[in-house]
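Problem: given the chain below (336 residues), write out its structure.
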Amino acid sequence: MAIDNTISDKIKPSYFAIPNKFAPSYKDPDTPTRVERSISVWTRNSQDPKNIEKYENFDRDISSYLSKIPNEVIRSIIVDLLNKKMIYMGHLAKYQSGITGTLLFNSNSDELLGIVVEINNLEIDFSDGSITRQSDVVYAIYLQYIRASILAGSEGVLKDTELLNLAEKYFNYLIVKTLKLSYLSEKQRVLFDITTSVFFNTFYARINSNIALEKAITKYCPDSLQDEVANIISAERMKRYVKFNDLFNAYYDNKAILDDPNNNVRKFLQGIKLHGYLYISTSLDYLIATACASKYNFSNIITCFIDNKLQSHIEDISISKYSNKLKYDSSTVKYF
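Solution.
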């Protein structure tokens, strides 16, 4: 299958996406768009009749599903992206199960250049552009849009106490549900909540471990347990847990969950499946976007649904406060 990677010299390389981390810090004017996962983007700019027909079918199938959903906000977001020709079909340069799409995002200007959906993992027939799993494609696009909004408003997001508290609560509930932790004693639950909170704030929100621990103890620890907790959990040790799977070691070391950490990693992965694990374990933008998109008929991450009221609150803030921070550069279609 031929891939058209023709692209203007103005935008290089031909593989695009944002970095796989929250709040990009680089400022390279020559290549402001960096690789998250290398993905080939099929052009919308080709005059080849077959290519035009593929995108006509692709757009039609998305529009057909949108006409059936009751959520006017999601419908208007995706219709706008379709009208701007900012949704592309793509193919991972190196196949990886579970990846449904990515962003074309200029982090220097907070401009969304486009959203790419991965044809193999979403079962899009590239021979004609038809979509079998229309709902999954629509909500994969929506998830990436939320990510873009959070990235564009990253400075404000990291100061948004309400949104961070809600995201932390979602993260906490997701682990409790997936690992079936209702059996924890009162003291274990306190140790669990504090460990989860510190990890959330250091891993996702990039807060200093000393500050994160102080906040967590104030929030979750009753006076009667403060001395005991202080002898178990230290900010210095919490600094060691820098990768996502380290969280399960932290639970064990902090006496919150006494099961083998490796077994809990496997249990968590089995519980939320590969797609959910890839999103949850990555970055704050992915975590928030997963909380928003898993409310809907998105089979890839339906395992990440926890509580409609909580997730709707996260979604409302993400859209009302941060979607207006997002800028569009729909002129990119000229180069694809």
